[in-house]
Amino acid sequence: RNPRLDDPNRKLAYQWAYSFGFSREAGRNASVSLDFVGNVSRDQTAELDINAPSSGALPGGARPGVARFDPNSVFIQGAARNTNFNRVRILTSNDGLNGDYKSLQFAFVRRMANRWSGRLSYTLQKANYVGLGNPDSRTVTNNLDPKSDYGRFASNRTHVLSATATVNVAKNLNLSALLSRLSGVPINETVGQDFNGDGNNNDRPIQGVSDAGKPILSALDSQGRAVINGIDGPGLFEMAVSVRYSIPLGSDKRALDLFYDVFNLFNTKNLQPGSGNRRNANFNNPTSANFPRQMQMGARIRF
After folding, report:
1. What kind and span of H or E run contains 69?
2. Is 79:179 a contact under the CB 8 Å cutoff?
């Protein structure tokens, strides 16, 4: 009653990538660059339930049955057509699964001169995807209209800022620092139950229908439903420093290297995203964080 089949007309997925930009010298020892980088994904695949409840996003819909989802006997033949099927999942390609990525990338680079070097980079980006999960396990809330799950990718970070610098304090002593500032990954707001009866517990709330009288924190689409990955998760700020000292051991080829590293120097509390399940007591409430300040030191003989 729950077959998994392959679409004989399934196409091979592909992606077009493109980029353009410029780089220019900025003084004798530095350069600046600005690039636009993007891609488009086409003929993407997913297992779609072609016998999904006909109501799509609403409750109470009946499954259409083999006569409606396969009138020409492409997938189901013979006596099997008399079966009262539940989910009929087809690995298929669909234009509604198309995704894309766009980013604007800036960089300032200074090569080592006057005992220091550095790099400053910033990326403004947006990755769009359909549904949740990898293509081989992707789920959508409405199998009859997968394009309605088009939205922010689950790992998208809109702003990414990074700065690094290295200073040669003395002949064999270097001090380095890394600063990272990132916006958070999004949180997908869900009802917390299989509201539409399609067998997947991934339904997003619909205003006045499945919101249980609680405000929806995500933006709403044209159907009054929370957009996918619609809540902004907590961002990240972290700084790390590293000290390196090299002691020659009688030859240019041999040395004792000493190092001392500190991660999350300011012991910043970088929270992990909270649950997007509206039935969870910790809905949108972070309950964990990344590592606090950590340090390490060591030695290495180079020869």
Report:
1. helix 66-69
2. no
Measured distance CA(259)–CA(12) in Å, rounded: 50
221 DSSP β-pair partners = none
Measured between alpha carbons, how far is residue 291 from residues 53, 91, 267, 274 in Å? Answer: 44, 40, 9, 16
Tens of pLDDT, residue by residue, the chain (303 residues)? 999 999 999 999 999 999 999 999 998 999 999 999 999 999 999 999 999 887 655 555 688 899 999 999 999 999 999 999 999 999 999 999 999 999 999 999 999 999 999 999 999 999 999 999 988 889 999 898 999 999 999 999 999 999 999 999 998 999 999 999 999 999 999 999 988 888 888 999 999 999 999 999 999 999 899 999 999 999 999 999 999 999 998 877 899 999 999 999 999 999 999 999 999 999 999 999 999 999 999 999 988
For the entire predicted model, the pTM comes to 0.87
Nearest Cα to Cα of residue 180 among 274, 102, 111, 266: 266
Question: Cα(43)–Cα(98) distance, rounded to whole angstroms?
Answer: 7
DSSP state of 143: T
* C-alpha to C-alpha distance for 138 and 170, rounded to whole angstroms: 55
3-state secondary structure of 274: coil
Q: Which token pair is 189?
A: 């707001």
Burial-class residue 218 by CB neighbours within 10 Å (0-12, 13-18, 19+): buried
CA dihedral 42, 45, 49, 55 (to 10 degrees): -20
Residue 180 in contact with residue 238, Cβ under 8 Å? yes
Classified as helix, coil or strand, 146 is: helix
